[in-house]
Q: What sequence folds into this?
DNA sequence: ACCTGAACACCGTTCAAGT
DNA sequence: ACCTGAACACCGTTCAAGT
């Protein structure tokens, strides 16, 4: 029993906290109550500890936010780069990567704006691709599949821009207060009858739950355009 | 002299502030020092007044942020809807609108994330189109130009998603700390030689100042795709 | 009518002190 | 080694009080 990785009744206090627990709790808190609910003091209280104890595991608030983004992005890194060669080449790779990042956005709609807006550490990192490993793999995969360097860079920019545009709107949709649907902005002087075209098209604009299919359609169209770039037959 | 819009030596104190001045100063402050610099107390100090005085002109911090977004978006509304018919139809309209919103992002890169992430007042508002007037005009223009309602709704979603993706990345680029370019994230254990593909392509990924042209190219390609939707010859 | 002082309930962060 | 109390410099917001 004695001589394990740590003696259990040592005079030194074993931590009641861990960095992983702090970060997981922060993510859970923001998922549940929104970004506004996250403060060091509130987070400490949630864990059952004073706020100052967190500073042993996290290098201040900014480091905490970065770590949350990293942890939320972790499944993307894990799942994206599996066996590119046999299972469909760049097309399957980009499809899977896109889906994975979409799941991140829908699983954590309150955190996705952080993924999009926090300053990336390196100059070539374009959100929502947040670290060098992901980008290295992304570019290497495209080069392997026969894209030129210039084409790969173009695909990188196009793909990130596509994901960001789609998923910011998806996340915003998911964090809307689920209040009564037919409300007006200021509830003030202006009335809906001033906007006849919007009223007339309101059913087309609300699109309940159509978001996932639209993402799939648009991603497929994007892959078609990329395929045309390298001279791949569309069908 | 007497009997003007207001007596000049009245016992009632004339305001030293105005709502417009408060909002303009807030925008100026965020442009200059970033969103983190904006607080009611700091803003008051910048104007030369105690923070509490601001509450007479602004209904709290949230209202201030909304008003900043509105003011920054104002040039877009003014310039977008001019004489659609004679000057090129929907294509010229969407081109001008896209450019106008891009200027908003490049003029106020620290404020654009606010435009993108603040909860829109109405359910059909998709950032960066932030108010019902803009959307009403957008849809009416497309219908006038022969788009079906379904097509107009599709174009609305596609266009907003395109702008958001492009301009979030443009704004992020412009708010980067202009530090030394070849830096590593944590400056820690990992070295750039672990990312050979990125190193090899670094010149292609940095693209200095190419952003505007790429936006123009991509917007044009988007308009081509929209044109194909309504059966317009591409060239 | 318009601004201010004082107050309340919060922040992030540091650091000496406790165990 | 790990957590806490006290402290500092900030927040947003309210409200009675001054002019």
A:
């Amino acid at each position: 029993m004695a001589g394990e990785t740590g003696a259990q009744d040592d005079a030194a206090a074993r931590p009641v906290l861990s960095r992983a627990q702090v970060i997981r709790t922060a993510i859970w808190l923001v998922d549940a109550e929104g970004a506004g609910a996250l403060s060091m003091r509130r987070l400490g209280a949630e864990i059952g500890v004073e706020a100052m104890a967190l500073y042993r595991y996290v290098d201040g608030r900014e480091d905490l936010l970065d770590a949350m983004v990293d942890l939320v992005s972790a499944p993307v890194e894990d799942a994206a780069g599996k066996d590119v060669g046999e299972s469909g080449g760049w097309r399957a790779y980009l499809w899977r990567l896109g889906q994975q990042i979409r799941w991140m956005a829908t699983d954590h709609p309150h955190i996705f704006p952080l993924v999009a807006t926090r300053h990336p550490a390196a100059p070539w990192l374009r959100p929502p691709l947040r670290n060098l490993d992901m980008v290295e793999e992304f570019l290497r995969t495209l080069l392997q599949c026969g894209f030129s360097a210039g084409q790969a860079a173009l695909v990188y920019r196009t793909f990130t821009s596509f994901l960001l545009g789609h998923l910011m709107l998806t996340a915003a949709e998911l964090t809307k207060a689920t209040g009564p649907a037919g409300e007006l902005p200021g509830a003030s002087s202006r009335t809906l009858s001033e906007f006849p075209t919007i009223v007339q098209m309101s059913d087309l604009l609300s699109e309940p739950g159509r978001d996932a299919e639209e993402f799939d359609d648009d991603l497929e169209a994007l892959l078609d355009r990329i395929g045309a770039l390298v001279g791949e037959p569309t069908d």
